[in-house]
Structure formats: structure tokens, C-alpha cells
Amino acid sequence: MSRRITALESRHVELGAGLADWNDISVAWNYYTDVDEEHAAVREAAGLFDMSGLRKVHIKGKDAYEMVNYLLPRNMEIIYVGKAGYSLILTKEGGIEDDAIVYRLAEDHYLLVFGTGDTAKQLEHAARGRDVSFWLDDDMHCISLQGPKAVGFLDQHTPMDLMSLKYFHQQETELFGHKLIIARTGYSGERGYDLFVNSKSVCHVWDSILEKGYDEGIRACSFTCLNLIRIEAGLHFYPYDMCTDTSPWEAELGWSISQSPTKGDYLGKEDVMKNRGNQRFYFCGVEVDHDNDEPFGEPIAGGEPVYANGRKAGNMTACIYSNRLKKAIGLAHIQQFAAEVGTPIIVHGNVTVTGKIVPLPFYDPEKKKVRGLT
User: Fold this and answer.
1) Does an H or E element contain 337, and which?
2) Total-model pTM
3) For the chain, what percent of residues have pLDDT higher than 70?
4) Do 72 and 268 contact (CB within 8 A), yes or no?
5) Are 162 and 151 in contact (CB under 8 A)?
6) Is residue 297 scored above 60 in pLDDT?
7) Nearest Cα to 225, choosing from 11, 41, 358, 359?
8) Closest of 234, 151, 143 to residue 197, by C-alpha
9) What average pLDDT does the structure give for the chain?
10) Between 3.40.50.2020, 3.90.550.10, 1.20.1440.230, 3.30.1360.120, what CATH number should domain 9-52+138-231 receive?
11) Closest Cα partner for 105 from 159, 181, 186, 167?
12) How far apart are CA 367 and CA 374, in angstroms?
């Protein structure tokens, strides 16, 4: 893949970013600000993230619906114009190639937004023999404002009635005088909005949010902060919490597989349904007995073996220390014999620590905040 460029790179450098590569693009892994300050902004006001490293693919044409309906295993009948939906992208063997959000922009036009998986080959396969075109749009940037003050702040600066935009819906509008798409989606566990805007306008929109939102506590946030809040919210990150060797049932994402009798065939259908009920492990929350002597949850970071009742029970996929929750929290793949909430565990990392299996998510377990119910 060729190197991709975010128009916001200079903004990240000004904020003291330690830049790192993700998905062939430079992302702000940290800023001058402390990650706990960024964390507080997301949970108490709003945090602004540059999510332009996500790949944005347009799918358009007479057979666009048929293509996405075959590409994605979710029920596409309910994704009408103006609606979005979360979906997995499967391998032909029923494993997870990636996950995505699909936005229906018009009857014959979808926007598919996904991460690092090898989705290009799946797109080519799904398009074969159909009257449709698809293309990667790297001019389209995505910045994400996540937190309880996001809706009230953005509503002041757009002509649309943002308060009425429902969860997982989107609308073309203007913000600070620039045309863009506002979508009520995100990756934080908070009510938030993804803003899809072109490269010529994105810096002005970014600057305006930070300048006009400063007194309300709105701050730029790094990928380190993003990793912390997504773990608190129990959200998956490909390829760590799921991969091509993981079935949707093992990732606790079986709910995203359509059970509609009118769904028809889709990529990976035969094998993914064979895997149902044959889970080798379950996606679980973990608390480990580790304080914050080491930054960001080290020495348990992901990949370490987990033991229960003297037996190998699985592996950690992620772990981080949350100063707001005052504990180290993590995600893990755990075999059935140890997956019950409350099961004591031992994790062997750089040091050996004890812990237990806990329910997911760690933050806002009823998911009222993200749905705007509180």
C-alpha cells in the first residue's frame, strides 16, 4: 500500500504529537497533554480525534445494494438512506477480515468505513459481475468529536437540527460554513459524532472546534486516549481482539450476523454458520491486580497467557490502567470453563498478576450514554 497523508499532520505536530504509523498513515499516538486530561475531556466534555487513518470506500451503481448485501453479513434491508450500521467483513472461511460501518448516502450509494484488514480482495469479489463501481477516497477525512458536550456544541454551528439526528444515522450539512457529513457514530462509549470532510476544509473545521470549544473543555485527544476509552467501552480493535482466525461467535459479535430469512447468500455464510455453537473461546472482560506503577497498564499489554484452576484458559488481547476507574482493565479470549464472571485468573506477563473475569463493558454497562438516554 502507498503512504497515505492526513492534512492534519501539521496540527498534530503543533500539539506535540509522537507520530506513529497505523494503516499506512501517521497518527498522533500522544500529545503534550497528559492522557488522563484527554480522558477527562471525553468523559466530561468532548474529545476531538483524527480518525482519517480509517479507509473510506464509496460503493455506487445500479447493483450497489446487491454488492453490499453480499459483502456484509448483517441485515442490509434495514439500512435505508440516511441510516448507518455496524457490520463485520468475513473471510470465505467465516473468520473476521475486519469490521466496518456502512453508511447509506443514497439509494445507489454506500460509504464503507473500515480499518486495517485485507478488505480490498473482498470488495473485488463482491463486485464481480455486478453493475457497480467502488473506490478509495483518501481526500475524505474523518474527525470525531466524542463526549457529552459534543451534541450541544456542534448544534450551535450547523444549520441542521443535530439534536434530532438518531443513533447510527447521518446527514449531509455544513459546519462552520464547510460542507460535510455528520454521522452519529464513534468509538468511545459516549454520545459522539464522526465528521466526514474533504482535505481542503478539514483543518479549518478542526481548528474551529478546538478554538470555539476550548472554554467548554473540548480538547484534542490522542490514539493512546482512544485505546483507553475503547477498552473501557468493551469495543474491539482489529486484529488484536478479533482476526481472520476468530469467528463472530467467539468475538461475541454474533448479533451482527443477519438471521433474516430474506438475507440470501453472503461472503463466508456457509462456514460462519457452521462455526455457530462451536466456539473455542469467549470475549471477556478482565480486571487484573496491578496498580499504576507502570504507564498505560504495563506490564500486561496484550497477548499474555491466562490461567484458571491450574489450566491454560486463554490469552489477553488488551490491557490498560484507567485512572478514572482506579483499576487495570483488559480484554481476553477465555475458554468456556473459565469464562464465568467472577472466575479467578492468573496472567503471566513480564510479571505474574492475579485477576478475575468481569462483565463487559467496564464503562456505562447499559450503554445509555452512547444512545443519548442520559
Assistant:
1) none
2) 0.96
3) 98
4) no
5) yes
6) no
7) 41
8) 143
9) 96
10) 3.30.1360.120
11) 181
12) 10
